[in-house]
Structures are given as C-alpha cells and as structure tokens.
Design goal:
By secondary structure, the chain is α/β, with parallel strands linked by helices. It is built from 15 helices and 15 strands. The chain has 2 domains: about 160 residues, Gcn5-related N-acetyltransferase (GNAT) (Aminopeptidase, 3-Layer(aba) Sandwich); about 260 residues, Vaccinia Virus protein VP39 (Rossmann fold, 3-Layer(aba) Sandwich), CATH 3.40.50.150. β2 and β3 form a beta hairpin. The protein binds S-adenosylmethionine. The site of S-adenosylmethionine (SAM) has 22 residues, from α5 and α7.
C-alpha cells in the first residue's frame, strides 16, 4: 500500500530526475501547459496569490516511488491533479489511490472546491482507465504537456464535479485577478479606441441614433474604465442620466479620475444594480463585452433584470466579438492552440464560447422582441497591422495567462513578429445585438 508525505529534499531530487528537460527515467509527465516542474516548485515556495500548489511524495514502505501534486485555482474553485511514478511502479494500479489521496487532501484543505480535473495522455489507455476508476468523467481532448518548438502533446481531459450548487462566480472577468492590471487597462482602452468609431457607425445604421438621443436614462453595466459611457455622454449630450456601473473599485476610481462629470459612476455588481432600479424607468441598458464573461445559466437572471427596469420601447444593447472571428494569414499554430485552450477554460466555467451565435434566443426567452444584430469586420487594412497585433495578441493572452504563463507571452510575441511581415493579414469581427421591450 502507498503512503504520502510532503515533498522532502530527497523527493525533490527524485522529482527533478523524473521531470526535467532530459528526464533520467523516461517519459515526461504532463504538467499544466506552459509550466516546468521547476517553475511550479518555485511558485509553491513563493505563491503568486492566484493558485496554490502542494507537492507530495509517494512512498512504498520507506522507498520514494514517485510524486504527485495539486494546483488549486481559488478563483475558479477548481483544482488540477498530476502524478508520476518511477518506471518500475508504473501500470501497477497505484494511480487510483494516489488520486483519491489528492482529492481528499485538496477538498479538505479547500472546502470551497467545486471541480477537480486531471489529464491523461491520450496515448496511454491504462492511465485513462485508472483515472476513470477514480471517479473522473472524460470531458474531451485538449492540447497539454509541454510546448517545445512546435510540438504539443495531446491529452484527455478528465473532470469531476464535486458539487452541483453555485458552479462559478457570477462573472469570470475580474481585473483584480490580472497579473498585470495596467497592461489589461491599456488593452481595454486601446480596444475601445479602435472600436468606438465603428460602433458609432453601427449605431447610425441600426437607427439607434434616434433612440439613444431621446433617452433620459442609460445604464452601462460593466462599464470598466467608463469609455463607452463617456462616449455616450458626448454623442448624446441631451441625455441627462448616464450611469456607469462596475464592481471593480479600481476601474471606477480610474474612470472618476478622467473627470467626466456627466456620467454617474457606481461601484456595484451589475445584477444587484439592475434589481435595485425602479421598474420601467430606463431607456437603455448597455453591456459591452460583459455577458460573455457570465456563466450561461445566469443569463436568464441578468436579461430578465435588464428587461424589468426598461421602459416599454426601451432596449438592451450588447456589444460582442464573434469568437470565431480571429482570422490571420499566414496562420499561427501557437495562437490557434491558445485560442482552443481559452475556449475550454471559458466552457469549464459555464460560459459560452461563441456568444453572438446564441444570444438572440436568450434575449427572446427573456421577453425581448425586435431582436437585431449588426456586425462589422475590422481588418489589418483598417486597424493597422500593429494595432491588430497588439490588441488581438493581448486579447489572447488574458484569461489564459494563469495557465499558460510564458507560452501565452510567446504566442503573443509570435503574432506581433508575424505582423511585421509583408504578407501578414488579419481580421476581427464584432457586432451589436439589440432587443426591445415591447
Ligand atoms: C471585458 S471588460 C469590458 C469593459 C467595458 N464594458 C469595455 O467595453 O471596455 C468586462 C467588465 O465587466 C465587469 N464585470 C465583471 N463582473 C461584473 C458584474 N458582476 N457586474 C457588472 N460588471 C461586471 C468587469 O469589472 C469589467 O469591467
């Protein structure tokens, strides 16, 4: 029978031989993509605050026969597990007890965990079988393991849901959890700068110009740095009540510092704010790049709350990117890979990857009518290659930065480098969705 204890100096030496660039004992294990064993050990000793890592060694009698660890992502209330054995102890049925130990330990230490995941190499049916016997459900194949040069190993993702209650926080986007908040701020502002002109054109083409100009009260939920609310206040100077609402104190403070007194900024959760508004008193509820960060099971609540506070004839206004919008020529495998990983992360948290494809039905179900959509393509010709590369590059890195680390940075850099090439071309598609309260 196997036993476990915290990693000792001896265990660490063994682990370094098992998992290194040139492992002494054969095949590399699958660590979370983009991380090396050394990087994880360093992080365990100096936690960066976003995830917790715990390593253990596996003992048979007094002999160390392998090691295992879990990584807890507190924000997502999810954990990832990994195990590795010395060659002579592989395939001996030791994975199941090890996994059980990791699950027990992780859930005891972090009782708020909702989900545990493990990956098995798709080339190793035995590993898959032992994870299945430990209670995992297979959820799909994703690229995992190491990215070296252009080589990436495939892995089967196995996930177990521990509890079925509130599966995720109400929004998956919190600027406070970004490694570099100022970089993300720069990205959002740049995105706004690039999109606002095009959005204004869409507003004119959908006849919304008139509706906005007659509005007395507009709320911009998830207003971020208040750029859109500020734009509204300039474009529609007659509107005397424009609210910008965001739960991030940091974002609200930064918007206040911009000195636009026409916009009333409120630091609050968007749903709470909508619920507290009087029924039927608002002309427009805007949500730009917000609903895509909310788990789908909560959309009904949000959209119904928005509809309740609208006047008859009032409207909801959603700005969204088409997730299948990213088109680059020549293609960049690293970016494609990053993209597919981001999709998995979003879905893992109950989100929807391509929101524009499904939002119409949700608007209808929440009672909206006259649902329309208008979209536009921004190409490198319109945006400039540099703008394209920086805004799309940053876009791909955020949200996966925790799990991709340096690999994400590499992918971003490869896009920026590619944008310098003569024949480089790229395109982004985004649009607005409108639904009216009949
Ligand atoms: C991708 S940003 C978009 C910001 C801004 N609308 C824009 O277009 O630049 C998502 C925004 O949603 C906000 N957000 C996250 N959770 C929210 C919630 N529960 N209620 C309202 N806003 C929320 C975030 O703080 C962030 O500002």
């Amino acid at each position: 029978m196997v036993k476990f204890r915290e990693l000792t100096k001896k265990g660490r030496e063994l682990a370094e031989m098992l998992v290194s660039d040139k492992p002494k004992y054969g095949t590399q294990i699958s660590l979370p993509t983009g991380f090396t064993f050394q990087a994880l050990l360093r992080e365990m000793e100096n936690p960066a605050g976003k995830r917790r890592i715990e390593f253990f060694e596996i003992l048979c009698g007094r002999k160390i026969i392998g090691f295992c660890y879990y990584t807890v992502y507190e924000r997502y209330r999810a954990a990832e597990l990994a195990t590795i054995f010395m060659p002579g102890y592989r395939g001996k049925g030791l994975v199941s007890p090890t996994i059980r130990f990791l699950i027990n330990h992780a859930t005891r230490t972090y009782p708020q965990l909702l989900r545990v995941e493990a990956t098995a190499s798709s080339a190793n049916p035995k590993a898959i079988a032992s994870l299945l016997s430990a209670g995992f459900n297979v959820e799909g194949v994703r690229p995992a393991g190491y990215v070296r040069g252009n080589k990436i190993s495939d892995a089967v993702l196995l996930g177990v849901v521990l509890k079925r209650d509130d599966m995720a926080p109400s929004s998956m986007y919190q600027i406070e959890s970004f490694r570099d908040k100022t970089l993300e701020r720069k990205r959002l502002l740049k995105q706004g700068e690039i999109l606002l002109d095009q959005e204004a054109e869409l507003i004119r083409n959908t006849g919304l110009q008139e509706k906005f100009s007659k509005a007395e009260r507009i709320v911009d939920i998830g207003c971020g740095f208040g750029q859109f609310a500020a734009w509204l206040s300039k474009a529609f100077p007659e509107t005397d009540k424009i609210f910008g609402v965001d739960p991030s104190r940091w974002m609200i403070r930064a918007s206040e510092a911009s000195g636009n007194r026409k916009v009333k900024l409120v630091c609050s959760d968007g749903l709470k704010f909508l619920d507290a508004l009087p029924a039927g008193g608002t002309d427009a509820v805007c949500m730009r790049f917000v609903i895509n960060h909310i788990p789908e099971r909560l959309w009904g609540r949000w959209l119904t709350a928005a509809r309740r506070c609208l006047k008859p004839g009032g409207f909801i206004y959603l700005t969204l990117s088409d997730a299948n919008y990213y088109k680059t020529f020549p293609g960049l495998p690293l970016m494609d890979l990053l993209f597919s990983h981001k999709k998995l992360l979003r879905e893992k948290n109950g989100g929807v990857w391509n929101v524009p494809a499904v939002i119409g039905g949700h608007l209808y179900a929440a009672g909206f009518r006259n649902i329309t959509q208008k979209s536009t393509c921004l190409s490198t010709e319109k945006m400039g290659k540099q703008n394209y590369a920086s805004s799309v590059g940053d876009q791909f890195v955020w949200g996966v930065e925790e799990s991709w680390g340096r690999t994400g940075e590499l992918a971003r850099k490869s896009l920026i480098d590619a944008a310098k090439a003569q024949n480089f071309w790229g395109q982004v598609k985004f649009g607005i969705h409108i639904g009216e309260k009949a």
